[in-house]
Amino acid sequence: MPRTTEGNMIALKQLVEGNPVATIVIDADHRVTHWNRACAMLTGVDAEHMLGRSEQWRAFYDVPRPLLADLVVDGAGVAEFERYYDGKFRPSVLLDDAYEAEDFFPDFDGGRWLFFTAAAIRNADGKIVGAIETLQDVTERRRAEAALRESEAYLAQIVDGSSVATLVIDAGHRVTHWNRACEMMTGMPAGDIIGTRQQWTAFYPSERPIMADLVLDAASESAVDRLYHGRFRPSLLIPGGYEAEDFFPHFGDSGRWLYFTAAPLRNAQGDLVGAIETLQDVSERRRAEEALRESEERYRALSQTDSLTGLYNSRYLHERLPGELERATRYSRPLSLLVIDCDNFKGINDRFGHLEGDKVLQNLAGVIGQCLRRSDSAYRYGGEEFVVLLPEADSFAALALAERLRGMFEALETATLSGEVVRCTVSIGISCHVPNDTETTLIRRADQASYVAKRRGKNRVEMEDSAA
Hints:
Layout: H1 3-17, E1 22-27, E2 32-35, H2 37-43, H3 68-73, H4 78-85, E3 89-91, E4 98-105, E5 112-122, E6 128-137, H5 139-161, E7 165-170, E8 175-178, H6 180-186, H7 190-193, H8 211-216, H9 221-227, E9 232-234, E10 242-248, E11 256-266, E12 272-281, H10 283-304, E13 312-313, H11 314-331, E14 335-342, H12 345-352, H13 354-371, E15 377-382, E16 385-391, H14 395-411, E17 413-415, E18 421-423, E19 426-432, H15 439-455, E20 461-463
Parallel strand pairs: 13-15, 19-20
Antiparallel strand pairs: 1-2, 1-6, 3-4, 4-5, 5-6, 7-8, 7-12, 9-10, 10-11, 11-12, 14-16, 14-19, 15-16, 17-18
Helix pairs in contact: 12-13, 13-14
């Protein structure tokens, strides 16, 4: 043997033997020329039982059949590879005349998965003179992959089996889960959305992130606020999660209110790898709350309003007046109060009956309402007596409003069922806020002024100063 060839063979032997990857070399006649220690440990067969022989199959199979290296030496076609490694092999992406495969060997230490590659060895003329095959134990990787698939399948069953609409996105914002409840809620089939980044289309008319996208991006509260202003809060249970409630007008026949939560998904190392979002239809709860608010508002209005005239009642006057007095005192602003009393109202009731008398009071309430400014308020104080509260009105403004009101009511006619016409007048007293005024003192002075108006002939307006 030439020294160069001998040197190459020695170098090859050292290279193969020193390789921690199980390695086999065969010559053109399929005889094993190298069977390194890593291969002996993997297969449990020592090199002395293999070198110089063509029985390498014994280390792997129960019956004679070619290894991947044998097929490479023979220059086998695709059909031969498929015969022995159907669905388990592919041409190498790195080397010409090389193949790689992955298969399960049940007799290896309770069963092992091996990844193996085989490449041709050529001489200087390019002729195939042998083949080298490497084998790696990938059982743990396979088990991890199987465990992951099982875990993912288990997760998918949990998500799909949930009656709560649920979607999951991965680190690339692609939808990985879109359960049946989510299909029913959004009307979008899972097949149209899984694997895409189009989750926004189920909820919004134009592209924008949903809550899960914001969680995945670890968006700040200010960023979330720009999209869900006043309708969200950080999760009380999960760090980095959010919950929100919003109205979706194109859900259902008339829109739906949804309560939704989004939370981050992390791997064992704590890395953010996705986000999960759940959605619940809370429209019925919202409608019930709205109905309750309307009911409470109606009750509040009824508790504050006189049923006959539609003006506020005396109870509400006593609720509101202290605040107006405090404001007038604190800011030194004017505040006036009118007491209005129907003249000769008992005679109207006695002559025409209480129903006709009620019409007169209703007409008076209408005139009062026409005279009020936006900041003013009017109250039926009792029987035929009314109070008007005038914030920011001094004595001159109060007098002008009172005279206008008196004149309008004097000119008003109330038709009775019998066809007669009732005309009525009012006597009005005015008081203006002074330091240390109370509800009682302010009302009393206006009430006294209205009595003065009656004594002086009725159908009059009197200021408190003239009541002395």
